[in-house]
Amino acid sequence: MKHFFCVIVIVLLVNGCSSSGISTVRVSGEVSYQGKPLENALVVFLPVVENKDIRGASATTDANGKFTLETLGATKTGAMLGNYNVVVTKEVQTNQEQMNAEYAANKDNPSYSSSTMPQFKNLLPKKYAEQSTTPLKAEVKKGKNHFAFELTE
Questions:
Q1: CATH number of the structural domain spanning residue 51
Q2: pLDDT of 33-92, one tens digit each?
Q3: Residue 58 belongs to a domain
Q4: pLDDT at 98 (0 to 100)
Q5: What is the pLDDT at residue 13?
Q6: pLDDT tens across 20-38, in order?
Q7: Could you tell me if residue 102 is left (phi over 0), alpha (psi between -120 and 50 degrees) or otherwise beta?
Q8: Is residue 55 part of a domain?
Q9: Does residue 96 fall inside a structural domain?
Q10: Does residue 50 lie in a domain region?
């Protein structure tokens, strides 16, 4: 979960809050891991060069590992032109059973408030979770932009 929040914070910092003048092109693709489509993975395109005019973009993969990027603050789907490091994570909650049991034991207590925080684990190799270590790169150009990423150990 720590990596997920770090990625989101990086995207927000890179993107800022203003939406004026954002021009994007459609970017789609698919992600597979060990030869199989990767479902419910977070795909984030982070600009290679720190430039406040270029924003990151993100998407979540569907059941077939397919995604279509969106840029925060843009009026249409896609990403801005430029070079990107691509970060991919797939996180699952590791303590859901514990939280369910705690809730079941306290569901009749109106003043109950859980002190257990959700815990998450990234199911993919760590190298794909960080901008500084990801081997995945993409160049978004005018025209068709479709990327296929095959993740390995």
A1: 2.60.40.10
A2: 999 999 999 999 999 987 777 899 999 999 999 999 999 777 778 999 999 999 999 998
A3: yes
A4: 80
A5: 45
A6: 568 899 999 999 999 999 9
A7: alpha
A8: yes
A9: no
A10: yes
Sign of the C-alpha dihedral computed for residues 131, 3, 146 and 136 taken in this order: positive
Query: For residues 128 and 142, what is the distance between their CA atoms, to the nearest angstrom?
Result: 26
Phi, psi of 96 (to 5 degrees): -60, -40
The residues that bridge with 92 in the sheet, in sequence order, are 121
Which range marks the domain in which residue 35 is found?
Answer: 2-15+24-91+121-151
Q: pTM of whole model > 0.85?
A: no
